[in-house]
Amino acid sequence: MQEKRSVRNSIVFIGGTLLGILLVLIPFNFNGTVDTVLFYYLKLLINQFNAQLRFIIMVLMILSAVGSLYDAIVKPKFIRNNKILKNILSTSPFYIVNRFLGALICVLVYFKIGPEFIISADTGSSMFGLATQLSVLVPFMLLLQTFILECGAMEFLGELIGFVVKPIFKISEMGAVSIISAWVGPGNAAILATQNLFEEGYYTVKEAAIIGSQFSTSSVGWIVLVSSVFGIMDHFVPLFLVITLVGVIVAMVGVRIPPISNYPDTYVDGSTTSPVVKEENVNQSKLTYAYNQALKRADKVTLKNFTSKINNMLFYVMWLQPIIVCWGTLALITSIYTPILQWISYPIELILNAANISEPAASASAIMSGFADNYLPVILGKDIVSVESRFIIAAMSILQIVFMSEIASLLTSTKVVKSFKDVLMVFIVRTFIALPFVILCVKLLGLS
């Protein structure tokens, strides 16, 4: 019986991981179009049913706005006592306003009414189109990347490289699994998981802040998505390698300077010793132990691992999309009709100019817009001609990590990072450390 269980777990670990990689990560050439299997066929679906999907997304955004206002005023038990509904509809007045603005923009664009600066192809119409596309692509990405994240691959890799994380990132060996999960999985899930592990006594205050602020990217699937929309899918492998290499360098620096270096190395109970007894590898080789840990994780995989993602899928469409449309449209209007974003991004423009990067002003604005939302750089930079510039913007949109529409808000609300000031400092530090290294890598790659 035990042998059958072991075979079953090996199939889940190896087969599940390979299936996820095949569907979500590996780019193929489809009649001259380079894309992953998942995104290629989903895009065909979107193109075929675009009108119907636009209407559905508009209705969902309206429901999101009205539902959140109803929840805030009435506080009904059927919402507050339901985990999914509470997660989607219970929010602050600030985000309720964001939802109404996002829904209003979609209504104006859909019916082609209202001021031109809101509904034009360069502003609201662009955001509504992207929202429609992302509302299909992202939920399926969240679902199918479960094969990569929860079938044992994270545990396998974490055990193999755990010994290097302490000297490099100043975090305990068991943090390797969380670091990898945060780097290739959804950032919001990584932050919540890190908070839970901190509260259970696995991590210190500083370790939780390090994982949340230095590694909580928007997932490997998101990098594929950005590459696909940006038209650089044929450069996905070098992009991912650059993001990983520069990400390691930025994290090495980030954990050694303020604000993160100022956080205490104390556990949830205030002590300097972990209250948790950790399992130790006594007599197995590192590879054998890593494989066995992967099988233990695979043993826990059930259909629930996939059905539980419905919450995050709905959260993305009904919670985040209205906010992304709202902030994205405002950012586009600000970028096109005012000089504000140009002023803020001027230091970045100087760096790009010095490095002889094409279209430095537009690229700099795109890069600095990442603090509002990690997809805004793609929106603002998608019409840039130079592959070199788009590659830099794509890499920076991932490496900046903290953005107000999700990760920054989550870091402060969970107290993983103490304050908004610290989040802003992390964004600035990561941006100015990462950019020169990204530019250097792009020059070495010879992109044009």
Description of the molecule:
It contains 25 helices and two strands. Helix 15 packs across helix 23. The N and C termini lie far apart (58 Å). The protein is 72% helix and 2% strand. With 448 residues, it is mainly alpha-helical. Strands 1-2 form a two-stranded antiparallel ribbon. The protein is globular and about 70 Å long. The model has no long low-confidence stretch (mean pLDDT 87).
Give the tags.
globular, mainly alpha, 2 strands, 448 residues, 25 helices, two-stranded antiparallel sheet
What is the compact description of this entry?
Helices cover 72% and strands 2% of the residues.
Write the layout of secondary structure elements.
Blueprint (H helix, E strand, L loop, with lengths): L1 H24 L1 E4 L2 E4 H12 L1 H25 L2 H4 L2 H7 L3 H19 L4 H4 L4 H21 L1 H4 L3 H17 L5 H10 L2 H13 L5 H10 L5 H11 L5 H19 L31 H13 L5 H4 L1 H29 L2 H5 L1 H9 L5 H9 L7 H6 L5 H13 L7 H7 L6 H26 L3
Antiparallel strand pairs: 1-2
Helix pairs in contact: 1-16, 2-8, 3-6, 3-8, 3-18, 5-18, 6-18, 8-18, 10-11, 10-16, 11-12, 12-13, 14-23, 15-23, 15-25, 20-21, 21-23, 23-25
Distance between the termini: 58 Å
Poorly predicted runs are none
- Discrete helix count: 25
Rounded mean pLDDT score: 87
Shape: globular
Name the helicity range: over 70%
Order of helices and strands: HEEHHHHHHHHHHHHHHHHHHHHHHHH
Placed side by side, the strands forming the largest sheet appear as 1-2
Query: Helix/strand/pairing class, anyone?
Result: mainly alpha
The largest sheet is: 2 strands, antiparallel
Q: How many strand elements? A: 2
Proportion of residues in extended strands: under 5%
Rg of Cα set: 22 Å
